[in-house]
Amino acid sequence: MTPNQDTKVIRIHTPEKTTRTLICLGFCGGGTGPYHQWTPALPEGVALAAVCYPGREGRFLEECATDWEELAADATATVLSAVDGLDGGPYVLFGHSMGGWMAFEVATRLERGGGPAPEALVVSSCNAPDRGLTPRDMFPARQDTDAELLTWMKSNGLMPEHVLGNPDLEDMALELMRADIQVRDTFRHTPGAKVGSPLQMLSASDDAVIEANAGEQWRGLALGDYRHDVLPGGHFYTPDIWRTLPHHIAALNTPTGAGV
What is the domain count for the chain? Predict the structure, then answer.
């Protein structure tokens, strides 16, 4: 693997004997950091990797993507590079919030291109993309003040405590959030796009961003097996649920090839 790939695919946990790999895509304004705390919750034999978007972490010297198409192309290529390193082993693709739409986008692009499809696709805390971008999805919003965005990231975005109160780190966090908001606001669903891999949707009981019938909306995008699980908490669940979210990903807790 080249150094450039190392900055794109963050190998968080690699067991000695890997049975499958969980590959995670970031949410709006987020990086790979929130997924590092999942390692203790992984079933035996499950590896964990996260996709790093341009403009952050090891890719901070790169320009951030400016629209959905640019970021989706980058994410698809990065997932392919991650899968190439698995030597044909199965993988589960996960995305939270905006990352859920991106995970769906990547999965459908791989299927259309004849690439290695995920063993399962898991989308978390997001409305179904085929209904289009609505004001409900555009939150936080580009017109929000810096203070409003920082409050959102502290209460809903898993921002590390050490960032708040540090002007330089806050400025970096705000820059990434605004870049991702710009990308999100250019989202367009590909008409007719559906996923053939088993699909699981996770949503939170008290998430004001997610529509009440989001589970049924996502069911219409699944060509194969589908399940919807509701967990406690808000947009990022409760802290305990988030730390142990792999426990709720069905494909990680079933024999290889058993689906969701």
Answer: 1
